[in-house]
Amino acid sequence: xxxxxxxxxxxxxxxxxxxxxxxxxxxxxxxxxxxxxxxxxxxxxxxxxxxxxxxxxxxxxxxxxxxxxxxxxxxxxxxxxxxxxxxxxxxxxxxxxxxxxxxxxxxxxxxxxxxxxxxxxxxxxxxxxxxxxxxxxxxxxxxxxxxxxxxxxxxxxxxxxxxxxxxxxxxxxxxxxxxxxxxxxxxxxxxxxxxxxxxxxxxxxxxxxxxxxxxxxxxxxxxxxxxxxxxxxxxxxxxxxxxxxxxxxxxxxxxxxxxxxxxxxxxxxxxxxxxxxxxxxxxxxxxxxxxxxxxxxxxxxxxxxxxxxxxxxxxxxxxxxxxxxxxxxxxxxxxxxxxxxxxxxxxxxxxxxxxxxxxxxxxxxxxxxxxxxxxxxxx
Length: 379
What we know:
This protein is an alpha/beta fold. It is built from 13 helices and four strands.
């Protein structure tokens, strides 16, 4: 089968009738992977009586399977007594359609497309999730075995990779993290200060900023920023190596990819993320302190005095304690999705997006679980 003729992205294929006219528009990507959806649309569209104009100006790509489907549709309309014409197809797509409609191929009957029922669709999705979960558990097992091997043989630890990972994931993230958490502190102080001022409780802005930033928002925001910045980089780096067969080359040379690509990143992030959280705490409180002085007239000295008595050390440590768990999620998911890349650069982009979405989802779920546990423990 010939390769699809493409113009850019891959929008979903569709066919729709222009209201009040005898024109039917063909749109999107008419390739073999997407024809199951398109066949259902063709079967249900209200075709015009008499003359039918198929407008193919918005067909972005088409392969031989798509051309066969279009050819079969034209033949069916003609057999139903309609006068059919195709307009607007790009020259290369028009040539492909003419080739398929040539006498030598016009008698070839395209096999019926398999129809996917809802139950089968549900089963396939469920099986895919189970397969991913099993693969992730296997991946975690390999990480655990590698860590045990490092404990037994400390000389195998690649310290340079760990230090390099700390610099990339930690030091290089300071500017963006500092700016965002500072602005987050400003927003919290602004929104909270507007309410506290009504009750003459301006000084309690220190309690609001302190508890919200240190216990909840700073760890959560830090993890989300690092997931978008570093987790995606992990997936893209490993995925690109997978596409270029560099990981196979490492295995051929006797180097375990887990030891050089995964575990150093995991350790680096477990070290870096708590430190980034401390930095985010400081910048968030600074933002709140500046806004409290500007909006409520609470001086920095008064803010810090109240802050010292309001925020206890256990509250501060509770926020920090979440960071290693978040770091583990980001590193494991990012690296795992990188290893799931197959085939082409398109797969790299897809798995990178999946890694960010899954990391942020799991971070929020785990953060909610921490809140429930802390509430249950009364801390």
